[in-house]
Specification:
Layout (H helix, E strand, L loop, with lengths): L2 H4 L2 H8 L14 E7 L6 E8 L6 E9 L2 H14 L4 H7 L2 H8 L6 H30 L3
Helix pairs in contact: 2-3, 3-6, 4-6, 5-6
The structure holds FE2/S2 (inorganic) cluster (2 copies).
Length: about 140
């Protein structure tokens, strides 16, 4: 009973060679950071986006996942999907059910792909909050 039999090869590929692993400078005004946890298992995922202020394009994405193989594969897959996307599209573009389908995750692993969806939303929210703050400061001429 090997895990290779239980998982679809696409999961294994993303798990063994995860794309876009790492960190972006959290302090950068152009970086949004999402940090989310899965209550079911305590696993944690950090996902960061670097956004072009002018165009709203996501220029870079990095993630770190302290979690199971399905969570790592899910985050790796979504970083590939949202790179180059407009930041406002990224919020709704990735559904955990689509990730699960693409990776053929078993039902017990659905929440692992949920982690990836939550992480993107959280990263976009953080970026939006930072931008909002910048605009307020600009308006107030701080
Ligand atoms: Fe615990 Fe996936 S979050 S099994
Ligand atoms: Fe925790 Fe998959 S088991 S994220």
């Amino acid at each position: 009973r090997t895990s290779a039999r239980l998982y679809h090869e696409k999961v294994i590929d993303h798990y063994e060679r995860p794309r876009n692993v790492g960190s972006l400078p959290k302090s950068s005004v152009h970086v949004g950071t999402g940090l989310v946890g899965a209550p079911a298992c305590g696993d944690v995922m950090k996902l960061q986006i670097l956004v072009d202020e002018e165009t709203g394009e996501i220029r870079d994405v990095k993630f770190k996942t302290f979690g199971c193989g399905s969570a790592i594969a899910s985050s790796s897959l979504v970083t590939e999907k949202i790179k180059g996307m407009k930041v406002w599209d990224a919020k709704t573009a990735v559904k955990n059910t689509d990730i699960a389908k693409e990776l053929r995750l078993p039902p017990v692993k659905l929440h692992c792909s949920m982690l990836a969806e939550d992480a993107i939303k959280s990263a976009v929210k953080d970026w939006e909050a930072k931008r909002e703050l910048r605009q307020q400061m600009k308006a107030a001429n701080v």
